[in-house]
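can u do me a favor
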């Protein structure tokens, strides 16, 4: 494609040639026209004047010989003049017409109509213009000849000079215009380059923006297709940018954002692109990177972010949830790869910033997932869901202090679907909300039933990370409790340690709110999420539930015993009770007793059961159900 400068130059050159051509042709035409016209006019008046003079001479001296007349005039007759009579016979001629062919002249004029006064006549191979005037009061006619070349050539020469002048002027103006165009276009090019840069880069960080990385991704895909190579697209989002902006101000947030690009550039080659998309969201395009290599680069990115950033005399750390997609495995268009990387990033957000490569299994918008979610919606409406209940036993009192409600889906085609298979998926979509509502509603209603039967068992429900930040659900819980007049301490909410740790500040706020409502709070799967001691002290929770992975094999694993012992001691020192889940045998139970564990849950006592089975079990067991009081521990 031609540059703007070339286009302008060509345009100016074209215009210059057009002007020269038109102007030249016009001047030539005008000059020729003018020459012819003025010449004719001049000849006409000259011949008339000579004829009148001759008539006067003849009148004053009738005896004068014509040749004498011509002789007298010779001094100024610098033109060929010829005098003919009525029969067109040549009577006399001036000195310059002496050599004209007499017969030819007589022949020519005798054949002409008598009223013709001018024309062109070829005489002795030269074109002669002639003008004729009758000599007044005589039968003579005076003819003036004039060879065409003489004066006309002067005018033609004038025309030519004008043409040359026009050409030169136009040429100069064309060139100066071209130079001017060059300067203008250079300026325009510079301005365009600035505008183009602005359009394709982020103003704050000067990194490529969404448009540019999109374009580069398009090219990279085309090249990867041709070269049969993969490419990876990473998306990541800083988790604490909002906190930094809120606490230290936007200038500090901006400062952090500007430092990200140069730091990450060190990890990347010149073929890779890092772009800022929006807020704290960045994208990294790495042509040639295989799927197996993505965790390694994600780990390096995390490390770079984990290294403190010097901002206004402070050292600030940041971290990000990272997701990636691969061409050709996950899509062959920028749109698809961006979408899949985004899904993977959301998955990372839900899983404590662990890196995720896109996986159709985790994609809430994949066909399988969409079908599953719509079926789950039907399951809520068709009563295909059930809560199973597993008792929680007080080790010291040998009483049942409550139950944990565990969700079951009885699919009309696939049969029983365990919660691990559909809850994490529902959590990636809006489906988690109606699902959690259903659990809250069903559990509170079940509590009301048991209460009237004389077994007011505390019911523990599991709340996923996404629901934890949903203010609507907190209101819903309050309403549900109000409806059945449930004493708040009879509802226990279990939140996993990883969910709490994903967004500690937000979790703390929600837990405080729930605690104020009088709801019993437990940290589920404790021991897997690395909660710091100081943070744990802050959390308004009543109970820690030791993850079953530490309990199940405790009898044969000393490390597990040590872990369980320290968790129990830690919890007690902080005034929290402890539940050990996954107790499958008497050996583990004895160990837990020895370690002063408060409560247990596990197959050793009972598996999670349907309401009917649970009621039967309650009838058959020696253990008595008691209303839970937090001071029973
Ligand atoms: P969880 O909250 O840790 O639940 C305890 C899991 O351990 C249950 O699995 C239970 O059946 C199992 N379990 C209990 N005692 C034993 C034992 O002695 N040995 C062994 N091996 N396992 C035992 P389940 O019912 O399959 O639930 C799995 C997970 O699904 C739960 O883990 C919880 O995270 C989630 N879940 C269940 N119901 C709900 C729900 O209503 N809402 C949410 N958000 N999550 C739920
Ligand atoms: Ca649980
Ligand atoms: Ca658990």
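np, heres the sequence
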């Amino acid at each position: 494609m031609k540059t703007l400068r070339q286009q302008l130059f060509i345009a100016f050159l074209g215009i210059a040639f057009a002007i020269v051509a038109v102007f030249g042709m016009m001047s030539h035409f005008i000059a020729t026209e003018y020459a012819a016209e003025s010449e004719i006019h001049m000849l006409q008046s000259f011949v008339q004047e000579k004829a009148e003079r001759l008539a006067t001479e003849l009148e004053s001296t009738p005896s004068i010989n014509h040749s004498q007349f011509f002789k007298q005039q010779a001094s100024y007759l610098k033109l060929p003049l010829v005098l003919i009579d009525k029969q067109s016979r040549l009577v006399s001629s001036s000195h310059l017409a002496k050599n004209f062919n007499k017969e030819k002249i007589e022949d020519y004029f005798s054949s002409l109509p008598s009223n013709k006064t001018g024309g062109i006549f070829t005489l002795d191979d030269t074109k002669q213009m002639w003008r004729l005037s009758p000599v007044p009061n005589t039968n003579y006619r005076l003819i003036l000849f004039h060879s065409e070349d003489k004066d006309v050539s002067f005018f033609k020469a004038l025309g030519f000079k004008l043409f040359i002048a026009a050409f030169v002027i136009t040429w100069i103006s064309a060139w100066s215009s071209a130079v001017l165009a060059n300067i203008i276009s250079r300026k325009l090019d510079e301005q365009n380059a600035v505008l183009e840069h602005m359009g394709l880069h982020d103003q704050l960080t000067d990194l490529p923006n969404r448009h540019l990385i999109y374009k580069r991704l398009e090219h990279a895909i085309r090249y990867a297709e041709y070269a049969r190579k993969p490419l990876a697209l990473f998306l990541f989002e800083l988790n604490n940018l909002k906190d930094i902006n809120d606490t230290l101000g936007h200038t500090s947030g901006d400062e952090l954002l500007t430092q990200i690009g140069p730091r990450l550039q060190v990890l990347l080659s010149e073929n890779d692109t890092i772009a800022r998309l929006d807020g704290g969201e960045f994208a990294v395009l790495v042509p040639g990177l295989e799927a197996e290599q993505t965790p390694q680069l994600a780990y390096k990115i995390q490390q770079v972010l984990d290294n403190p950033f010097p901002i206004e005399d402070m050292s600030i750390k940041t971290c990000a949830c990272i997701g990636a997609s691969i061409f050709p495995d996950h899509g062959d268009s920028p749109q698809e790869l961006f979408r899949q990387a985004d899904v993977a990033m959301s998955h990372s957000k839900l899983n404590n910033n662990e890196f995720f490569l896109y996986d159709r299994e985790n994609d809430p918008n994949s066909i399988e997932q969409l079908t599953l979610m719509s079926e789950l919606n039907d399951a809520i409406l068709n009563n295909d869901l059930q809560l199973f209940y597993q008792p929680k036993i007080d080790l010291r009192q040998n009483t049942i202090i409550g139950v944990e409600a565990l969700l079951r889906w009885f699919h009309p085609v696939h049969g029983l679907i365990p919660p691990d298979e559909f809850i994490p998926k529902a959590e990636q979509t809006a489906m988690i909300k109606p699902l959690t509502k259903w659990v809250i509603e069903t559990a509170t209603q079940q509590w009301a039933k048991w209460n009237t039967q004389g077994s007011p068992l505390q019911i523990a429900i599991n709340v996923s990370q996404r629901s934890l930040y949903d203010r609507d659900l907190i209101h819903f819980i309050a309403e549900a409790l109000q409806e059945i007049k449930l004493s708040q301490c009879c509802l226990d909410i279990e939140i996993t340690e990883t969910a709490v740790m994903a967004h500690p500040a937000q979790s703390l706020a929600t837990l405080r709110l729930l605690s104020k409502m009088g709801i019993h709070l437990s940290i589920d799967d404790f021991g897997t999420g690395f909660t710091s001691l100081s943070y744990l002290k802050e959390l308004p929770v009543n109970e820690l539930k030791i993850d079953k992975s530490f309990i199940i094999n405790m009898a044969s694993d000393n490390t597990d015993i040590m872990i369980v012992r320290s968790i129990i001691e830690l919890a007690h020192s902080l005034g929290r009770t402890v539940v050990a889940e996954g107790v499958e045998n008497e050996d583990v139970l004895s160990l837990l007793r020895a370690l002063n564990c408060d409560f247990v849950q596990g197959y050793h006592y009972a598996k999670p059961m349907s309401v009917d089975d649970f009621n039967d079990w309650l009838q058959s067991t020696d253990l008595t159900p008691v209303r839970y009081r937090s001071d029973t521990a």
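Residues 378-605 form a domain with the TIM Barrel fold (CATH 3.20.20.450). hope that helps!!
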